[in-house]
Amino acid sequence: MKKTQWQGWDPGEQAEQHYLVQPRALAGGGDVRHISEFLRASGWRDKSTSGGPLFMESPDRTVRVAYDPYVLPGGWTIHGKADGLNGEWSAHLGRQTPVEIVAGLTDALTRPRSAHAPSVWAPFEEQNWPTRFEGKHYMATSPDGTAWMQYHQGADGSAMWWAGARDEQGNGWTANFTPTTPMYLMQAFSTELADADPVMRPRGYVPLSAQIRTWSVSVHPSQLSAWQQARITAARTATWARSSARPRTSARPYTPAGGPRTRR
User: Residue limits of the DUF317 domain (predicted)?
Assistant: First the structure.
């Protein structure tokens, strides 16, 4: 990016080395604030304790998002209470699940549901992931074989969604979702998992793997700040628009005790 193209660029800033990483599923966990700041800007309550794991709650208190790196295996836990459309549900995603993929699900929690019927497998088909049946299981696998998503049905009839990524050294992550997880959330997750675009990681935070490809880029701190702020601003704007669109109940006219009186 040229200096003249970036109005917020400070000539005194030092560019920092970052890397674009592909495939994104093997890029490592990333910055948790990518998720937490978006939820906070969307009106979620931050109930984290100082120095403890991340813990956030939706405005209506029906969904909780937690990230705990201090326990094994650690990672993300997302839990939703039963409502009129879905039963109680939960999702567990490993610590090395890229935040961009986790955000596919958590961002969707802040938006109204689409009127269109969701399709978990459509994003994979659009990105040319092979899909196939394996017994009672249905599975999509990335073209390079490093990532997958599976609808798994056990012999006892139990079922769950299972996804993950792994390189030849065994490094990676897994995620599982209860069968009651709303399908629009599963589609939002699968969309980010299937996305072929690379994600950015700072120097020193790129996993050592023969299965990833990287491109070095120089980024100024003000650029990173502006990109992060644009995401936060989008969340605030969407939240404000939704609250403004809610119908307001007009106050009833005052009626004296004893009912209306008629003049004679």
Answer: 57-114, 141-199
